[in-house]
Amino acid sequence: MLSQSIFRYALSLLSITLILSAPATSSPAANMSANSSREMLRVAVATNFLNTARELAREFEKQSAYRIVLSSGSTGKLYAQVINSAPFDVFLAADTERPERLEKDGLIIPASRTTYAIGRLALWSAADDFVRPNALPPANSYSHLAIANPRLAPYGRAAQEALQALGAWEAIQPKLVMGENIAQTFQFVASGNAQLGLIAASQVPAARGSVWLIPADLHQSIEQQAVLLNEQPAGRAFMNFLRSPAARKLIREHGYDLNGD
Amino acid sequence: MLNAADMDALWITLRLATVSTMVLLALGTPLAWWLAHTRSPFKNTINALVALPLVLPPTVLGFYLLLALSPSGPVGQITQTLGGTTLAFSFAGLVIGSVIYSLPFVVHPLQDAFGRIGPRPMEVAATLGAGKVDRWFGVALPLARPGYITAAVFGFAHTLGEFGVVLMIGGNIPGETQVLSIAIYDHVETLQYGEAHLLAGLLLLLSFVLLLIVYTVNRRFRIT
To answer: Span B1-9, mean pLDDT?
Structure first.
């Protein structure tokens, strides 16, 4: 009796394992999409650029025969994955430091390093009329100001520089809260737990709250660079696409600056 | 050896784990007692709710806590009425998060221990004239001692390793909400592997010793 039920149990476990281990592309749902036959391009993208990258990918897929798979994370984490041979073809970083380091270590296709966007910083509050252009709100009107961690995130470092340039860095210390990345910083402000925060201009919601686009000369420019990690046609095509007028227009619409404007 | 910020992180982590464990034992005792004895139709529902943190990703708990603690959230509304501030980015907020996050690790061992006592010892004590309070402290509590040791250590150790919830509601303030796991994460992200190793090794050792204590003490207790 007992051995029989153990046998049945083992058999059902085995069949479940077999079903689950079958490659996803052989499932009927995947076959229905024409995408499965397309050549795949894996793109690692810094979180602040994810939304823009999604739209770029859609546009790119329309005009090419390739399919793009996006993996997002902080630039530091993606960098660590790349040097440990993660299977990415293109890396859209949020800074120049990590791409430069990859280039120096010979981990990218030579001369593929290029600036694809220049980030802008925005002081944003989920409350209407709280943030006004050209100055920080008076310190006694809020209890928390959120920035990304300057040690981890390029936007955090820019935020620190901007606050220093505004002469507020020292005084603001007790009110500072830090997100691990710029997406989390946005969460702190959007949920209202922090009354305001310095986030990426690309994150500012269209019709919500109040905003001041921080002048770009208050901090070092947040150049975001792309590198090609493997030599193959799909990656080349995507890198070229990033420089096309259509892509540049999309990137600018999402709140980024570009070189040569 | 450890720099000042890392020492702060270690101290906050130990303080958080201690305070959370005490709160958990205080809240967990009546809850576990009720769960061990009730025939209420809500028993399964409450059991499932208590076990939720076991299966939910900590980021889900953290996300809901962030919304709940915010000025427009239910908890935020209450704290604003009472004290005028919200609890996100504060030590008190972390305690709330940890209590929820480690709840099953404290309630389950206690529930188990209470259930194992059975009705008999309490009935015997009652026939010998022991009052309700007397029976509880004189009979139930000593019999449930292994359960309490397990609950306290598991609650403490599990809070030590908390990361996702703190990440979501802590705000990474050095000296206030920056705990050990966050400090390790920051070191790894900034490629300071030496510092990361030191803190990670410390946490590993601490957790191992704590678990070793539970298993050793409880085994000895069972034999005698």
So the answer is: 87
pTM of the predicted model as reported, rounded to 2 decimal places: 0.79
Please, what are the domains in chain A? Answer: 38-118+222-253 (3.40.190.10), 121-213 (3.40.190.10)
Taking the CA of residue B170 and the nearest CA in chain A, the distance in Å comes to: 8
Q: What is the CATH number of domain B4-223?
A: 1.10.3720.10
Distance from CA of B200 to the nearest CA of A (A): 18
CB contact under 8 A, A74 and B189: yes
| Structure confidence by residue, pLDDT tens digits, A81-119 | 898 888 999 999 999 999 999 999 999 999 999 999 999
The reported pLDDT for the residue numbered A18 is 65
pLDDT class of A26 with cuts at 50, 70, 90: very low
Can you give the three-state secondary structure of B71-137, one letter per residue?
A: CCCHHHHHHHHHCCCCCCCCHHHHHHHHHHHHHHHHHHHHHHHHHHHCHHHHHHHHHCCCCHHHHHH
Is the Cβ of B60 closer than 8 Å to some Cβ of chain A? Answer: no
Interface test with A, best of B89, B177, B182 (most A CBs within 10 A): B89
List CB contacts of A103: < 8 A, sequence separation 6 or more.
Answer: A110, A113, A227
B83 reaches A (C-beta below 8 A): no
Tell me the ipTM for this assembly: 0.77
A vs B, Cβ pairs < 8 A, gives: 59
